[in-house]
Fold this protein.
Amino acid sequence: MAHPHAGQRGPVRVATASTLLAAAAGVVDLWAVTSLGGPFAGVVTGNLVTLGGAAGRGDGTALVSPLVAVLGFALGAAGWSFAGRRRPAALARPLAAELVVLVGLAVAWPLVVPGPTVLLVLLAGAALAMGAQSSTALRLGESTTYLTGTLTGAVAVLVTGGPPRRVLALRQLVALVLGAAVAAVLLGAARWSVPLLAVALVVAALLVLGRPPADADG
């Protein structure tokens, strides 16, 4: 269910912004998987399975990256959720805070020399941003990083009938795939620009959301 203040922005604005954020998640996850050591930044379930596999094999080295990703995501979700308790009407401000993290990653990415420690730091930052985005997306009433439930709900509606909104939510999956596809192209053509694409998408989401008429907190 959408946060009451999300409704003040109108369903079209909320849907458009959440779709842009899903595309940003696709970019960041593709970047993390291909360039930051392998774990997802936003798909925690996959990372937990990887953690379980590494633990079962007794492979301590393989535990590190997925553990960093899970902890980074959890910290982002917890931190942004805690901050949201003080300003429950705010939607733009937490996204702007996420944007600061992504800008930092975008600036660092072309400047650093990749190494195990550096990649772990970048992965932690990417996971932090995705955890923050997921926390904010809850207020929008949309998923932007973990979309298995979105697909399940849409398929169930197509088979059994139900709210058409669940079918429309498939746009999130399309956006996720498109974001990852464009990021893959950029990795080959202009590797330095991949996190900048995520920055641009979050900026676009902020511009679309704007401020609700009765919300002075943003």
Summary: The longest helix spans residues 60-86. The chain has ten helices and no strands. The radius of gyration is 17 Å.
